[in-house]
Specification:
This protein has seven helices and 13 strands. The chain has helices at about 40-50, 65-75, 135-150, 165-170, 230-240, 250-260, 270-275; strands spanning about 1-5, 10-15, 30-35, 55-60, 80, 90-100, 105-110, 125-130, 155-160, 175-180, 195-200, 205-210, 215. The strands form two sheets. A nine-stranded mixed sheet has the order 5-4-1-8-9-10-11-12-13, sandwiched between helices. The chain has a four-stranded mixed sheet with strand order 3-2-6-7.
């Protein structure tokens, strides 16, 4: 069975530094990595690293920079579906600086909010779960509607509020939110979401359903690189849907994310997994 991941794909240029630069300051980096990034993309890499079949539906286009993402995703074992292969503009780009001593990072990015990609159909087969990140609104809605029609669970990576969520949330089974996520008006359970999960870095993960609530502790770990850790967590969650029940599902995602933050660089943790 395949996990379908629908959303953003960026090019991440990641430089590791001794200290994050102050405004107007120039620093030399310790290392440089270039990799595909973005919430749905990092989640897809995670599913593949865990031994699952990952299908990423996104927009990359024909710009030369897009070839970097295509090569990285192919090396990671991700099945890429580009909805606009002839789109000439550069793909979304993120410039990242990671502090060497504790893995803290700063990110400057241009995402896909300026794109208006239409999705006429989304016919899929043998899908165990769908993850959406809301960065391509039409794609997120098409994927979630398809999943609802075919009785496939939908996981939402809810990093921040987006206008599409008013329409998307009633189609979501599991909303995995950052601690900074805020929804205007009714809470997510009242909006029709079956399970709401809130992560907060090293603090316990909280969860709610209509029947109950609880927390799952996060094991202490020496963080070397936190870039994309939340995306990895969401990918592990989507992979685990149908394999684990709460709170074991959350505990599994916590363990995979811990592997990510212990490793330096966007792909070293994947090699450490030893699956691909």
């Amino acid at each position: 069975m395949t996990v379908l991941l629908a959303g953003l794909c960026t090019i991440d240029v990641v430089q590791r530094v001794e200290e994050l630069p102050a405004p107007g300051e120039k620093v030399q980096s310790l290392s440089v990595d270039v990799a595909a990034g973005g919430p749905a993309t990092n989640a897809a890499v995670t599913v593949a690293a865990l031994g699952g079949d990952a299908r990423l539906v996104t927009v990359l286009g024909s710009h030369p920079l897009a070839a970097l993402a295509r090569a990285d995703l192919a090396a990671c074992g991700v099945d890429l579906v580009d909805l606009a292969p002839d789109h000439p503009e550069p793909p979304s780009l993120s410039a990242v600086a990671v502090r060497d001593r504790d893995g803290e990072r700063t990110v400057v990015s241009r995402n896909a909010g300026h794109l208006n990609i239409e999705v006429s159909s989304l016919e899929q087969a043998d899908i165990s779960a769908v993850l959406v990140d809301g960065h391509h609104p039409a794609l997120a809605l098409a994927a979630a509607r398809w999943a609802r029609e075919h009785d496939v669970p939908v996981v939402l990576d809810a990093g921040s509020w987006k206008p599409v969520l008013d329409e998307l949330l009633p189609l979501v089974d599991i909303a995995a939110c950052s601690a900074h996520f805020r929804a205007p008006g009714p809470n997510l359970l009242e909006r029709g979401v079956g399970t709401v999960i809130v992560t907060a870095g090293p603090d316990p993960v909280r969860w709610w359903t209509a029947e109950g609530a609880g927390t799952v502790p996060v094991a202490p770990v020496e963080a070397r690189d936190t870039l994309g850790a939340g995306d990895v967590w969401h990918g592990a969650l989507a992979y685990g849907v149908g394999r684990f029940e709460l709170p074991e599902l959350i505990r599994f995602a916590n363990e995979v994310a811990a592997r990510r933050v212990r490793q330096v660089g966007p792909r070293s943790w994947v090699r450490e997994m030893g699956v691909r």
